[in-house]
Design a protein that fits this description.
The structure holds three protein chains of three kinds. By secondary structure, chain A is of the alpha+beta class. Chain A is built from eleven helices and seven strands. By secondary structure, chain B is mostly helical. Chain B contains four helices and no strands. Helix content of chain C is about 80%, strand content about 0%. In chain C, α1 crosses α3. The chains are: A alpha+beta, B mainly alpha, C mainly alpha. Chains in contact: A-B, A-C, B-C. At the A-B interface, α7, α10 and α11 of A face α1, α3 and α4 of B.
Chain lengths: ~280, ~150, ~130
Amino acid sequence: MSDNGVKDFVFRVRRFDPVKDDSPHYQDFKVPVKPGWTILEGLWYIKENMDSSLSWRSSCRMGVCGSCGMLVNGSPTLACNTQIRDVATGVLMLAPLPNFDIIRDLVPDLAPMFDKHTHLMPHIKRDDQEEMLEPTDQYWQSPEELDQFLQFSYCIKCGCCMAACPTFATDATFSGPQPLSQAYRYLIDSRDDAFKERKTLLGSGGVGPWRCHYAGECSTVCPKGVDPARAIQLMKRELVLDYLRLSKASKRKPAGLLPAEKRLGRRDDIPEAPPFTVEDAS
Amino acid sequence: MPEVKRYPNRLGIKGWLVGGKWGPERYLYFLHRVTGLGLLLYLLMHIVVVSSRAFGQEQWEWAMGRVSGPVFLVGEFLVFVAFVFHALNGVRLVLVELGILTGKAEDPVFPYRSSVNVQRPFMIVMMILAAILIVLGGYDFFVLVAH
Amino acid sequence: MSMKDTKLWTWHMASGVIILVLLGIHMLAMHMSGVMPLERLNPAGDNPLDWANVVARGREVSQVAGYIFLVGFGLFHGLYGLKNILFELNPAPGLKKLISVVLLLLGLGLFVFGAWSAVAARTMALSVSG
């Protein structure tokens, strides 16, 4: 320990340059870490003082944007909200999130995850398209109905859960924890009216929750406490109950607009929404 | 734009055991598979071997003679161990997969407590129970039967 | 409406519970006879593999039915589990089809053989007593 609590840590970083390298290799950087530094701050120190070619992805530096997911000492997490001294005593192993192709150094290609996410219809689906596009009021949802999915809506799509999933480690066709937890978030939303379509999509072709065997790792590593494993098991429960004709969710009517006597109308101080910037917003 | 070279970084089967620092449930996932495969292999052979009883006492005793001795005793004990583990871990998995042991969705408040923490006490109880049954079975296998 | 994965996995879980009960009894009879002797399962003494015990069990309809259910549910649970593990290794679509067909035929064949031998053993057991 030297002055001001600064202590040297070795950052053992997995490097890969697609132009020069055939396979990744580790490179050590000795970083003088000040108290309170996050891993992201250590990486910035390397880039500014030691090797400007070091690449990673980051943006908000406060655990909101989901850009800086990486494998830290063997555990997928966000570099920006992990204190160096909390996870290492001398050597810090950094590698890109596994189960995704490496673009360069610590930058994984998350596109397959986003494709799977899109495929599982992560949006409210219902028949009243006009009301959806030009809402006249809010849909009537109780706090209990909100609680059924609120936890899962905190997902920031960082990909940590996908990196921790043993099934996704072998099976590229498996949807994985992130897309499935978001599929459940909409399956159980009382405003949604597409249970039949969703159960068909999730119940066949191997994309659904049935390739999950509860290793539980996705929930352990999730930096936002979203608990994808819980969402996936609750989804299985709904699908099994539906198969046994015991499901309530499959029989529910989608939430309607507030009853007339409860409507407060639009507040005067809220400005009108800006016009659509694309031709066909539907 | 030229095609950018990617390095495939999927962990593959070795990711079931290594490639990261994982929790106990993930190793149980692996053990559940291994024991399941072992039990299936045994079942396939067992169906063939014990069908010898349909052909009479002589064939039965001949077949039993083929599969006796210390190697088969240890082998059968391993099958028993696999069954006990696979069954008790399977009970946990069924209860988890039906959402009974995961708990309902809750507000994520740091430090997060996930469904893994909810089911963990049950997991520990099941594993202790498995250990007790395995010891009892071992007593039967190697002490009572052997003498 | 196809919900094949949901249906099969529901049966996978259900068969697991059924096997737990049936195989639990089978294991009690075969490997716990010393710790917990159950006369109903081994009427002819402590050695469950003794021919007299095999014949005694073979006479009971409940035992024969138990064997047939155990073979059926056991094969389904085991082979569907194996299929899942193999599919999770992400084989090519053609190989997936081959795996499905081979496992289905293996399961059906062994089920017919296992069920036949349980029934044939009962016929023999009854003739021994008569």
